[in-house]
């Protein structure tokens, strides 16, 4: 945190200096009242009255100018600190491994980066320097009042122990109240993110009323938590106001009696009243700051808990970058379990030669996608090793590994931006020629050229302004742009119209040419032309061979093929790795 604040040291010093100017002007004003009443007014000195009145106006001008500079410099300081902290949190988030995101809801993480960090802005913009200023101001007022009349000062301070006692009692409750508020905001964000992402299902299953009721419960919990914090904060402020007014009443009673005895001047009493009102003002501000501090501390706990998370997947410090990748893959006795759960891969051993096209099939949960996640080190193996060109992938730089393994996922995710930025995703400096060549190779340039702005055409959130087929082609272009040695297709083709299917068939041919490829598929019609097909069952490879050889074995693959082609005509469906081969 200090690293985020240190660059703003000059602004902080400027703000503190201006704060002392503001405080000096404020402390001088009541004393000018005393001088005005006790001297020129009593003597009838009009010139003296004018001079002191102008002096008072001058202090107001100085106070306002210095306050503007102080508030602006502190706001600038706070926003700069928040900018750095938000950058640090986001940079840390993208460095964390997949197991972390398995444990945390997206909405809760959004709360850390937005709401929690925003609450810290209040701490810097209206808190830290104000805390210093109010503390010094309180001490200065105490000193001035004791200097003016120590007996009247004791009357003014008679009730302050009550405030310190209340502060000690309420401190823990206020902090807990703000913790509850932050937790409930995180729950709201998590539920909103989930509901909006799944809105299609919500509407298809007519769940609008149920979802609204569930949201109302979460929303009401947040309101109750906010009200609880407001009760403590408002109650404390009201007590401060009451104590201040009682103190003024006591001073009027005692001071008035002293004036009648000629033991106190009227100007001194007026100055006391002014100083006392300004004494309880900082106390009231400090109580408000305490509420801000509690909210900030609750947020800081959550932010630093996030920053304390350490990525399980890191690049080796002594990693060497091979001059060239040939795309040979070897799984050697690989075992894996998600967290402390049951093992999902049981001693997988597999060798894929350079340029070989291997398809992986199996029932849901058989471990197909887990293999791919391990290959790109989204997770590390529990036992065994995975090697590329004979080198354990744990010894390769992550950036090199993930550049050599291109992945096209089932969810053809496009980011808000332009078509060019999506194809060059991860490498903003990728030459325009490479982007256009990749699009041309997978036949995506045909529809891109028809768009207003062609490669600069806007992409809406998740590619909502493109068809399924167009998003597939853009995903292929994105994978091809980096010219990876290994290509992974994780159920990357979907059922589309005939014209788009022909485009995708051609795109797949260009995409896979000269590359080692692993293709995960549920639709067997897409992988009949693979060099080798692996059948996975309960985390093991139970069958391996060509399409025709596996059909002749009449094992699991044969049963899967019969099941699927009993429902669809052979050769129909989405794009294939090669020309479809119909088995009899």
> What is the helical fraction, as a range of percent?
55-70%
Strands across the major sheet, in which order?
Answer: 6-9-10-3-11-12
Structural category? alpha/beta
Identify the CATH class of the largest domain.
Mainly Alpha
Annotated CATH architecture of the largest domain: Up-down Bundle
Report strand %. Answer: 5-15%
Multimerization status: single chain
Compute the CA-based radius of gyration: 36 Å
Q: Count of helical segments?
A: 20
Number of domains: 2
Instruction: Give the overall silhouette.
Output: elongated
How is the main sheet built?
A: 6 strands, mixed
CATH overall fold name of the largest domain = ABC transporter transmembrane region fold
N-to-C span: 69 Å
| Count of strand segments | 12
Q: pLDDT average, as an integer?
A: 82
């Amino acid at each position: 945190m200090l690293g985020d604040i240190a660059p703003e040291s000059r602004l902080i010093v400027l703000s503190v200096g201006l704060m002392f100017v503001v405080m000096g002007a404020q402390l001088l004003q009541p004393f000018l009242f005393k001088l005005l009443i006790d001297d020129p007014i009593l003597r009838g000195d009009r010139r003296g009255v004018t001079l002191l009145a102008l002096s008072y106006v001058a202090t107001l001008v100085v106070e306002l100018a210095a306050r503007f500079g102080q508030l602006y410099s502190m706001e600038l300081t706070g926003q700069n600190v928040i900018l750095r902290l938000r950058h640090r949190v986001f940079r840390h988030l993208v460095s964390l491994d997949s197991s972390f995101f398995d444990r945390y809801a997206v909405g809760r993480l959004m709360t850390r980066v937005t709401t929690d960090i925003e609450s810290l802005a209040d701490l810097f913009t209206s808190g830290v320097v104000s805390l210093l200023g109010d503390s010094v101001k309180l001490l200065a007022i105490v000193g001035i009042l004791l200097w003016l009349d120590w007996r009247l000062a004791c009357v003014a301070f008679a009730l302050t122990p009550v405030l310190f006692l209340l502060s000690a009692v309420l401190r823990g409750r206020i902090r807990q109240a703000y913790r509850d508020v932050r937790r409930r905001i995180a729950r709201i964000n998590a539920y909103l993110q989930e509901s909006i992402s799944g809105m299609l299902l919500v509407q298809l299953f007519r769940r609008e009323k149920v979802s609204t009721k569930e949201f109302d419960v979460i929303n009401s919990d947040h309101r109750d938590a906010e009200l609880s914090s407001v009760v403590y904060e408002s109650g404390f402020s009201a007590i401060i106001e009451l104590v201040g007014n009682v103190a003024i009443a006591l001073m009027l009673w005692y001071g008035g009696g002293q004036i009648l005895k000629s033991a106190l001047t009227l100007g001194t009493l007026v100055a006391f009243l002014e100083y006392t009102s300004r004494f309880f003002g900082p106390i009231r501000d400090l109580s408000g700051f305490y509420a801000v501090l509690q909210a900030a501390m609750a947020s800081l706990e959550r932010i630093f808990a996030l920053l304390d998370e350490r990525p399980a997947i890191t690049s080796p410090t002594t990693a060497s970058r091979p001059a060239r990748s040939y795309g040979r893959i070897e799984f050697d006795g690989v075992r894996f379990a998600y967290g402390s759960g049951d093992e999902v891969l049981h001693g997988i051993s597999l060798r894929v030669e350079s340029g070989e096209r291997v398809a992986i099939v199996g029932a849901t949960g058989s471990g197909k996608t887990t293999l791919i996640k391990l290959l790109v080190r989204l997770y590390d193996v529990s036992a065994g090793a995975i090697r590329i060109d004979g080198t354990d992938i744990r010894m390769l730089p992550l950036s090199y590994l993930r550049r050599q393994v291109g992945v096209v996922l089932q969810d053809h995710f496009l980011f808000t931006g332009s078509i060019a930025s999506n194809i060059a995703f991860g490498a903003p400096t990728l030459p325009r020629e490479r982007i256009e060549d990749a699009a041309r190779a997978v036949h995506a340039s045909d529809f891109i050229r028809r768009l207003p702005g062609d490669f600069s055409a806007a992409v809406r959130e998740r590619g909502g302004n493109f068809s399924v087929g167009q998003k597939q082609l853009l995903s292929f272009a994105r994978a091809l742009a980096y010219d990876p040695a290994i290509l992974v297709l994780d159920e990357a083709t979907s059922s589309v119209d005939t014209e788009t299917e022909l485009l995708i068939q051609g795109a797949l041919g260009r995409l896979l040419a000269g590359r080692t490829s692993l293709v995960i598929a549920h639709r067997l019609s897409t992988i009949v032309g693979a060099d080798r097909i692996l059948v996975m069952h309960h985390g093991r490879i139970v069958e391996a061979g060509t399409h025709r050889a596996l059909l002749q074995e009449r094992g699991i693959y044969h049963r899967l093929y019969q099941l699927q082609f009993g429902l669809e005509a052979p050769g129909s469906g989405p794009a294939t790795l090669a020309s479809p081969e119909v088995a009899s």
